[in-house]
Amino acid sequence: MSDAKRGTDTPLIKITQLYKVFGKNPDKVMPAVREGQSKDKILADTGHTVGLKDINLEIHKGEIYVIMGLSGSGKSTMIRHFNRLIDPTEGQILVEGTDVMKLSEKELQEFRRHKMSMVFQRFGLMPHYTVLENVAYGLKIQGIEKAQRREKALYWLETVGLKGYEEQYPSQLSGGQQQRVGLARALCTDAEILLMDEAFSALDPLIRSEMQDQLIELQEKLHKTIIFITHDLDEALRLGDRIAILKDGELVQEGEPADILLHPATDYVEAFVKDVNRARALTVETVMKPRVCRIDAATIGEALAQMKKLPEDFAYYVNDDGYQGVVEQEALEEAALNHADQQLEGDLVQDVPGISPDSLLEEVIPDTLDTEYPLPVIDKEGDLQGALSRSNLAEVLGDSSGKSAA
Amino acid sequence: MAEESWLTEFPKMDRADLVAIRKYLDAAYRDFSREYGDTIESLFDPLLTMLIWFEKLLLNSPWWAVLIGIAGLCYLASRSWKLVAGVVISMLAIGYFGMWDNTMRTLSIITVCTLLSIAIGIPIGIAMARSDKVRAFVTPMLDIMQTMPAFVYLIPVVMLLGIGRIPGVIAVVVYAIPPVIRLTNLGIRLVDKEVLEAATAFGASPSQRLYGVQLPLAMPTIMAGINQTIMMALAMVVVASMIGVKGLGQPVLKSITNQYFTLGLLNGLAIVALAIIFDRASQAYAKRTQKHLGGDHHV
């Protein structure tokens, strides 16, 4: 596993200038596509459908990369290019520096067996195999012997929580259980890259969020590189380390979830983002003010001196042990009259609880309402990272267009 | 006058030309069959040997041994005692009415024809499913085979190979093979695209896809095709008897020419009994092996 130590700067997967045109003679239509003629015009003129247009993207090791778009946006076509279930009309696909397009039929088979595995929207399970045989399918294809196959399949089946279902057939399981089998089958080959094509879209909302939790939990342990396709922005925001938004075969925006929510690049993305429950999608870190009034003096006198330079009439007191609490200018001035050289402690430092930068906004709303000061944001080491004020929050949650936020 | 006649009369070929063409083709084919008849006949020798061996096996074994064998096979296929009881009763009735030997002959030729149809038909069906070009070529051939009156394609076969078992087998196979080809093609084409895609995504080779996914999933449809093939083969028994195939068809043929109503009816019923046995046993087998594909769904 020496790969694991490779720097994250070199992308694991790199796609450059990828085009896909469906039709009888795609090459003839390519000049028009490259010229930038619209999908509709090309369809009307030539009868060819533009599936993907000038896609460039880089996916790094260990991240969950979500490709999202509505139906017809080309996202399912896109994911099938990674393992060449669909061949592009033009463009380059590099996986760990290997040009996937140059692989021979045999090499491609090996590549699919060991490098990537896939989870399908409607599960794609073999109805004539038992659950266990399904999970072991990838290994069977590789020619691994039965006992070894069985052992490994049992392990993954247990990991996804389906122990005891080994001898059932897929048709005897519920949708959620079937997709767990699909997930176990994909994990069983130990492939580094996991392609998930709308893997949870066919499931009930409750089961879907359960599966999302499970995926996140698994990912924390396994650190796979996951390419996840979805039409559901909430799902994209929840799972994605980075999100790419496709529209009519074009990549309209790519970025971190908060980035997409707060700075939609086009009207299309903006319309999408509008309906998202931001309180549930954004973390404190993405909306807090990083620059805050802090005091690190030891005595009351010094503290007052620092305080006077600050724009606000309160500050967060931080010492060697990290964040301690909030001090007010008024109280400091009163105390400084008599005890300017005393330690800053006791009643002077008000105990205002900090919040974690990773919390969702939704979780901290009650706290912001209870406190008159902006809430200090404290990281795991106890250091002050920033502060989240009520007005901060109101701005982000209230202004649905997001343009003026942050 | 001659110029106008095509308006009232269909402009047809000169009678002398037509005769010349017929004569030419007939002569050419006759020469061909004289030249190569023996060679081609010898190609079919292994088939003939198998046919005769199987017929002798059924005829020379004691009737009760054959009966036990058939009942055993039916039980293995269906796991149903009810079916086995029905089979035993109808076979006993056939024997009691003196049709045992003819039934065995028919049974042997039907079995051989069915096996042959499966052995030839399934690969053709697979090829058809894999390539649209092959399908475009094979489909009209199948249409011809199914609609062309059997006697028409029997003429060249009989000219080439004479009368007897082999031309009979060819006639039966030509007539009976289309369903297994068509339904193999259909079954493979109907296999869930996503399942096949999943196999491909996990790196399955074309043969792993075929044997691991496509054929098993197409099996219910293929079995329906085999079932149809058996039924059509049985329907050809009487026609085949016209070119010297022994069996239940010959008494039927005799009954037609001599107006023996009862003889015809009895032999006809024996054919029906064979058909029902084949049908029920093969369907029960298909159903039993494909059980997990169907419902039985719980949440």
For this entry, give a set of tags.
heterodimer; A: 406 residues; Rossmann fold; 6-stranded mixed β-sheet; 18 helices; B: 299 residues; mainly alpha; MetI-like fold; 14 helices; globular
Note down, in words, how this protein is organized.
The complex is a heterodimer of chains A (406) and B (299). Chain A is α/β, with parallel strands linked by helices and 406 residues long. Chain A folds into two domains: 2-115 and 191-276, Rossmann fold, CATH 3.40.50.300; 286-398, Roll (CBS-domain). In chain A, 40% of the residues lie in helices and 21% in strands. Chain A has 18 helices and 15 strands. Chain A has helices at residues 26-35, 39-46, 75-82, 105-114, 131-135, 137-142, 146-159, 175-188, 205-222, 233-239, 257-262, 267-274, 278-281, 284-287, 300-309, 329-339, 361-370, 390-398, and strands at residues 13-22, 49-59, 64-68, 90-95, 98-99, 116-119, 193-197, 225-230, 242-247, 250-255, 294-295, 314-319, 322-328, 375-378, 384-388. In chain A, a hairpin with a 2-residue loop joins strand 9 and strand 10. The radius of gyration of chain A is 27 Å and the shape is elongated. The two termini of chain A are 40 Å apart. Chain B has a single domain, classed as MetI-like fold, CATH 1.10.3720.10. Chain B contains 14 helices and no strands. Chain B has helices at residues 5-8, 15-43, 45-60, 63-78, 81-96, 100-130, 132-147, 150-161, 165-189, 193-201, 206-235, 237-241, 249-258, 261-289. In chain B, helix 8 (150-161) crosses helix 9 (165-189) and helix 11 (206-235) packs antiparallel against helix 14 (261-289). Chain B is mostly helical. The A-B interface holds A 83, 85, 109-114, 116-118, 120-128, 137-138, 140-142, 169, 171-172, 174, 185, 189, 195 and B 192, 194-195, 197-205, 208, 212-213, 216-217, 292-299.
